[in-house]
Amino acid sequence: MNTLFSIAGKNCRQLAPLLLRLAMGFGFMAHGWAKLSRGPESFAKLLSLLHVPAPHLMAWLTTATELLGGFALLIGAFVGITAIPLIATMLVAMFTIHIHFGYSTIRTIGLTPEGPVFGPPGYEINLLYIAGLLSLILTGAGRFSVDGLLGKNRRI
Questions:
Q1: If you write DSSP's letter for every residue of 76-140 in order, what string do you get?
Q2: Degrees to nearest 5, angle at CA 25 with 139 and 108
Q3: pTM
Q4: Does residue 153 register a pLDDT over 90?
């Protein structure tokens, strides 16, 4: 039985890269928008504290990479190429900031009457984004994508 809802069916397998792209594309765009809405100068201050060279340029470059790269993932355009700078941003964030706080993204450090208090996030989310991006590089953007429409949905 090969229906849309069959896990073994080809149609259902084509939904996997679509769902992955939508979740990750939205995530990258949300992070890029947060940087843009607060002003890349705020992010540049953080980069400066981390001794990143040319912090203002890197703040704008990171913001643009997350916004444009996230949108490209969302629509499935040039996913293999787009994934590379996004992986780079995740590696830099992981090794400069998140690695110091351990693995877990959610660390409860206290409880107040208003609810839990969370500590800084670990590198778990970076690894998840990297794994998802590598998966898209290896399998392609899927049928329901710009790449699929252009015939660039080849597997490595």
A1: T-SHHHHHHHHHHHHHHHHHHTGGGG-S-S--EEEEETTEEEE----SHHHHHHHHHHHHHHHH-
A2: 110
A3: 0.84
A4: no
